[in-house]
Amino acid sequence: MRALILALTAAALAVPAIAQEKPVELKKAPGLDKVEANCSGCHSLDYIPMNSPFPNAALWDAEVGKMIKAFGAPISEADAKVIADYLKKNYGS
Amino acid sequence: MPGKKPLIKLSYRPPNYETPLEYFRTAITSNDAFFVRYHLSNIPEVDVKTWKIAVGGDGANGQAELSLDDLKRLPAAEVVAVNQCSGNRRGLFQPHVPGVQWSYGAMGCARWKGARLKDLLDRVGLKKEAIEIVFDGADSGVSDQTPDFVKSIPAWKAIEDTTLIAYEMNGQPLPHLNGFPARLIVPGWTGTYWMKHVTSIKAVTKPDTNFWMTPAYRIPLGKFPLVTRFTSQESATNTPITEMVVNSLITDPADGTKVSAVRPATIGGIAWDGGYGIRSVEVSSDGGKTWAAATLGDDLGRFAFRTFRYSFAPSQRGKKTIMARATNTIGQSQTSELIHNPAGYHHNVFHSITLDVA
User: Fold this and answer.
1) Which of B40, B210, B266, B294 is deepest in the core (most CB within 10 A)?
2) pLDDT tens, B65-85?
3) In chain A, what are the helix, strand and coil shares in percent, each to the nearest 5?
4) Mutate which of A9, A45, A46, A50 to disrupt the B interface (most B C-beta within 10 Å)?
5) B212 with B328, same domain?
6) What's the distance, CA B151 to chain centroid?
7) ipTM metric
8) Is residue B290 located within the same domain as residue B176?
9) CB atoms B145 and A59 under 8 Å
């Protein structure tokens, strides 16, 4: 966790050099807090609306699973379920 | 973004920005309009005073470190080549494929100048057992659990005369977001191999197995008409993406333009392929029933965008759809129907525009 916090700080510092990042406003619904807390450390949240509304429930489950298993996102099982439910309800087909 | 004209934003972080179609009216894409594509969000500004490329690996006889000055002291080579993201046009896939939803602009063509990769590898000497050359760049993930972006190419491709470590792009240092101070140029192959901010080059005697080689960037075996293969990485069902498929894009006029029924309109565009060179571009104004040859523009080399022009004389008023189709020197042509694949690569369906003839 300490490594991640350090990494997040580094990312925040690196942002101005990359682009003028503006806040991405996602739909206000239950689970948004978990999405913001768990996803936005590694990537901007525009990835979600960019891929919407096509994914069905299985695809959003697969995407959340990929972030954890392939990309090493430290997301608890409970949070992963909340995030996947939020994506299915608000950005799914 | 610093040093860039306004591009089309797909994602802020990592930055993924495509080039608006209007910048493809010429065979060379300017540095400030060149698309930006990253997988991971930590993209340090490289300090050339301390930056070095380490060359070695178990497939090399020795090790070396090269500074930017060392790189520039090697014999310089130039190539005009298209850098196109494997997933360019993914956003046009039906059914939808998840990922960065690129339209037509995840590509560009530049004149690259640098040292031949072969000359760097000669510094350390390749063993005959070396089968792949593995590249790493300065960028990395935010979490140390995220696989670093690392790619390999076959040794035979690495020692081709046109495979470069480039430090100039269209006569200027590379823009930061296009790989400053030096990036790999793999003419004919998709952008995934064109490692930016290169820091490490390793010759290896076993296939690289990192995430970005497998399962990422794979296409089903046998689905696309490709010539060059990456056999050390092939499985029973899939293979790494390699060379680009033949393709074209209509850049003039813009889709939806009103044109006169009594004057011919000039249709313009660009065509490119995986390095065999463009033989012809044809244009159809009747939904593909008949095709007429366009005139090709200057030949900047077999890896470059090739411009084309065609004079279209409308025969009646109303909406008219114009399509373009490129064919390369080995007879490969574009597809009329999408070749679907799980990652959304190699979209080369005929591009079309609709004109309003009035």
Assistant:
1) B294
2) 999 999 999 999 999 999 999
3) 60, 0, 40
4) A50
5) no
6) 15
7) 0.93
8) no
9) no
What digits encode the pLDDT tens for the residues B196-236?
Answer: 999 999 999 999 999 999 999 999 999 999 999 999 999 99
Residue with tokens 């697969």: A62
The architecture that CATH gives domain A23-91 is Orthogonal Bundle (1.10)
Q: Does B179 share its domain with B281?
A: no
In whole angstroms, give the CA distance from residue B267 to residue A85. Answer: 48
Residue B143 with chain A: CB contacts under 8 Å = 3-4, 7, 41-42, 71-74
Chain A residues close to B106, C-beta within 8 Å: none
Residues 23-42 of B with CB under 8 A from A: 41-42
How far away is chain A from the Cα of B168, in angstroms, using its nearest Cα? 21
N-term to C-term CA, chain B: 40
- CB-based contacts of B189, cutoff 8 Å, min separation 6: B153, B157, B228, B242, B243, B244, B274
Closest among B335, B267, B323 to B291, alpha carbons compared: B323
Residue with tokens 């990192």: B210
Find out whether A11 and B42 touch, Cβ atoms under 8 Å. yes
